[in-house]
Amino acid sequence: MKTLFALLALVIAAPVAAQSVAITGGTLVVGDGGDPIPNGTVVVRGGRVVAAGVNVAVPAGAQIVDATGRWVTPGIVGGFTRLGLVEVSLEPSTNDSGAATSPFSAGLDIEPAINPAGSAISTNRTGGVTRAIVAPTTTSTIFGGQGAIIDLGDDMDAVMQPRAFQFVELGETGASRAGGSRSASHAMLRNAFDQAVAYARSPAGYGMGNSREALLNSRDAAALVPVIRGEVPMLVHVEQARDILNVLALRNDYPRLRLVLVGVTEGWRVAPQIAAARVPVIASALNDLPASFEQLAATQSNIGRMRDAGVEVAIGMINDNDAHYLYLSTQYAGNLVALNRIPGATGLSWGEAFAAISSVPAEIMGMGGEIGSLRPGRRADVVIWDGDPLELSSNVDMVMIDGVQQSLVSRQSRLRDRYLNIGETQLPQAYEW
Amino acid sequence: MMARIGIVAAALVSLVACATTNGGSASAENASHRQSYDELFDPDPFPSTYAPYPGVPTVITNTTIYDGEGGEITSGMIYFADGHIQAVGQSLEIPDGATVVDGSGLWVTPGVIDIHSHLGNYPSPGVSAHSDGNEATDPNTANVWTEHSVWPQDPGFSRALANGGVTTLNILPGSANLFGGRSVTLRNVPSRTMQGMKFPGAPYGLKMACGENPKRVYGSRNRSPSTRMGNIAVARQAWADAQRYREQWERYREEGGARPARNLQNETLVGVMEGEILVHNHCYRADEMANMIDMANEFGYRISSFQHAVEAYKIPDLLRENGICSAMWADWWGFKMEAYDAVFENIPMVHAGGACAIVHSDDQNGIQRLNQEAAKALADGRRAGIQISDAEAWQWLAINPARALGIAEETGSLVSGKRADVVLWNGNPFSVYSRPQMVWIDGALMYDMNDPQRRPISDFELGQPGEGSVR
Question: Tell me: the pLDDT tens digits for B172-227?
């Protein structure tokens, strides 16, 4: 079996700094929402995309990778994840997604908690995921803390942008975290914002004369200052139509908030309002059950209907095994394409579906100039697949991050190889490594 | 096996009855005692009232057929009427008056069978009042029957039908307990009652669990079991007690005297030892599956299936030799330690090892895409050099779960005489772009992609925003 893998693998020699790599002959997906392009070429140099398209000249001296019969795409961007924070979900010692007994909330910063060597990183890399938006979970308040954008490279430098956003719960979970009602969650939010304003006015004098019960510690208050100023986006998890409108209304009082809605199962019910507010959405793709009373209007057509209304929508995986299964992003996107063939359902075009797991999440986070597509100048996160990347029968042949070809070995592939030909050796399985 | 019988009562008083007969062969000398037992204790106190919905004779023409047992017919035909499959083949004569469905470019498969579902006992919405899957009050609740938790208005049933082509499903109790209770096999039809969904004559199952869940649940309460060795100790004692219980009833049958007190836990365990109730054993790790096999041998019962079986790929030989099916996910892992050694190729590796592989969901969303789960596993297997055809892989969704549930004579493949549980897919069912176009259960059309009226909406959804948008 090992020989077989070696034959299948595409090997790119480590490029010299100034050397170009040209990937030619494949079906090219730029990731910008357009259709796949037959026989396209991608040129990479110095870790960036130089050009991608049909009439792209291959520079002299470029290393050529023949991708004939394969698909070439930007890496998948995990739209909403807890990737890198969790090794084994139920083992608290390995789970850094939340901090139930910490005195801090909004001030928590996941940067030191991201483990680039975690097995979820390598396993998802083998599924073509190259970047992820990573959020903390909330525990004792509505604030989870400051999330990050990471890459899934096989190195210790995972965090691409720390403190990229603040994560807040304002639906059923938020109500529960705040003490039991939506009144409490909104009071907690506004009280915290008030204190952040006070902190910004006078960091040294912060807390003087305030009641202790409702006082935010200075680290939490400081983290909310750039949120109120609109310098850092606020990702808000809500599902129900009413909760969505409540979040949009926050801008009446805090006009500079850069809001991003997450989850948004009932988004289609208020899609015109979301579009009018120009608030982007990172939605769960396939929720179609009234899983809770805030998701009664769940339908797989949600994303398609929001798109029709002019909402900018990416696919995310909040609370959907979001620490381990980001490789499901392609399957989810493919399912939205499938809806187009069902009368009465609203899906996405193939190009839109792929963009929803690549360029759109990147653009929502203000990173569209760096990642999520193969437009010139972007970081060279390139994946070569043996077929349509949204199709279940396809597998990943090659992953490049920042222009560097990545290992596709994971704990899982090692276990598979150990047991694939069980019983054929003289020594016990444990020697078969 | 399919007759409606007093499974446990028959087992208790009629040791000559083998696992697959209906108890009617019990010798005459036992008859009076059995009769008296049956009079005292109704052997089937919650009988199925399921009746097929009306259907019309139907022929699907010129279509690709996976028969569910590994066979494939291209440009084939299938004819069903009176609730049953009448003929499957390359070319059939179309009977007068039959409805003809043009299957060009479409695929036909047997209805998907999910051997592990919690629809009804953990229904949507998942509010606290609906948490009816785990009677987590004692490590042995072999006395509970999960059919008494099933809420037929769970909106999940319709999603499983319309998006997943699921026609039969096994509802299991949860895995908090070593003995979680009896499972129930359902037809996926709307009904006002659980009894109206209950698969007539299907044997009961017993949900067992090994590993982390029972020891965590009871260990956290400073009760036994709190370790894996505790799991086995408590389970063995339960089996030993059930043996004694069986002996008491045997003695009563042979010698008369004071009638032993009835014990519902032991009734279920004795039913297992008699082969009338099928064990579905939640077990992730290879080493623990081996322990469960030894325990089964010690007490003389069989394990029908391991559920979740994340490490089944490590022991396909053991599973093959013991005739145990493994019900698996395609790619779940990492949520707990016993799910840490998952591999994407688990299902095809078990299949290639000659053991029985089943794709299961354990999930109200996953049950809508079991065909996709099989497709992913199939692709990963092929990538690793395991060549399995599409038609062969459909066994994971059809005849294999049917066998493990003891209903293979009734459903699970497209064979003449079986129930007409049929899905017409609008493309290759292993493609992400395909969905069920029409679904028949017992020959009755229960879903039609092109007919907005031909899909169920549960009571819960009526009058709610969206009102049951299944897609």
Answer: 999 999 999 999 999 999 999 999 999 999 999 999 999 999 999 999 999 999 99
Smallest Cβ distance to A291: which of B124, B212, B316? B124
Q: In chain B, where are the structural domains located?
A: 1-45, 110-448
Kindly determine whether residue A416 and residue B434, on different chains, have CB atoms separated by under 8 Å.
no
Q: B66, B109 in Cβ contact below 8 A?
A: yes
Counting residues of chain B whose pLDDT is more than 90, the rounded percentage is 89
Indicate whether A352 and A324 sit together in one domain. Answer: yes
Which of A346, A416, A421 best tests the B interface by mutation, with the highest count of B CBs <10 A? Answer: A416
Contact state of A416 with B124 under an 8 Å Cβ cutoff: no
* Residue A269 DSSP code: G
- A329-338 helix and B370-383 helix, angle to the nearest 10 degrees: 130
> Quick one: pLDDT at residue B468?
63
CB nearest B385 (choices: A1, A287, A289): A1
**Residues in A touching B379 (Cβ below 8 Å):** 392-395
ipTM of the complex: 0.95
Give the closest-approach CA distance of A130 to chain B in angstroms.
19
d(CA B269, CA A420): 37
Tens-digit pLDDT profile for residues B372-422: 999 999 999 999 999 999 999 999 999 999 999 999 999 999 999 999 999
A340 and A215 housed in the same domain: yes
Are A310 and A397 in a shared domain? Answer: no
If asked whether residues A299 and A407 sit together in one domain, one would say no
Per-residue pLDDT band at A422 (split at 50, 70, 90): confident
Q: What is the CA radius of gyration of chain B?
A: 22
The Cα B376–Cα B381 span in angstroms is: 9
pLDDT at A316: 98
Q: What is the least distance, in Å, from the CA of A166 to any CA of chain B? A: 25
Asked whether residue A429 is assigned to any structural domain, the reply reads no
Task: Give the DSSP letter of residue B95.
Answer: P
Domain count across chain A:
2
Q: What pLDDT score does A212 carry? A: 62
Tell me, yes or no, whether A430 lies in a domain. Answer: no
Tell me the average pLDDT of chain A: 94
Residues near A172 by beta carbon (within 8 Å), at least 6 away in sequence? A239, A240, A292, A293, A294
Q: Do A325 and B332 touch (CB under 8 A)?
A: yes
pLDDT tens figures, A228-238: 999 999 999 99
Best mutation target among B310, B432, B457 (most A Cβ atoms within 10 Å) is: B432
Cβ contacts of B384 on chain A, cutoff 8 Å: 1, 416, 420
Q: Nearest-CA residue of chain B relative to A304?
A: B471
Please report, for the domain that includes residue A199, its CATH number: 3.20.20.140
Residue A89: inside a domain: yes
pLDDT digits (tens, 9 = 90+) for B336-369: 999 999 999 999 999 999 999 999 999 999 999 9
- Do A274 and A156 belong together in one domain? yes
Measured at the CA of A317, the angle between CA A315 and CA A322, to 5 degrees, comes to 145
Query: Which pLDDT band holds residue A424 (cuts at 50, 70, 90)?
Result: low
Dihedral angle computed from the Cα positions of residues B27, B33, B36 and B42, in that order, rounded to the nearest 10 degrees: -60
Which of A119, A287, A288, A422 is best to mutate for the B interface (most B CBs within 10 A)? A288
Q: How many percent of chain B have pLDDT more than 70? A: 91
Q: A395 and A347, same structural domain?
A: no
Nearest to B432 among A327, A331, A420 (CB): A331
Q: What's the pLDDT at A17? A: 61
Mutation target for B interface from A393, A395, A417, A432: give the one with most B CBs within 10 A.
Answer: A393
Residue A254 shares a structural domain with residue A232: yes
Tell if the CB–CB gap between B336 and A88 is shorter than 8 Å: yes
Residue-number span of the structural domain to which A180 is assigned: 76-371
For domain B110-448, give the CATH number: 3.20.20.140
CA of A338: how far to CAs of A326, A396, B187, B200, in Å? Answer: 20, 22, 27, 35
A chain contacts of residue B155, beta-carbon cutoff 8 Å: 289-290
Position A400 in a domain: yes
Q: Which residue of B has its CA nearest to A417?
A: B384
Q: Does B25 score more than 60 pLDDT?
A: no
> What is the C-alpha separation between A192 and A188, in angstroms, rounded?
6
**A183 and A34 in a common domain:** no
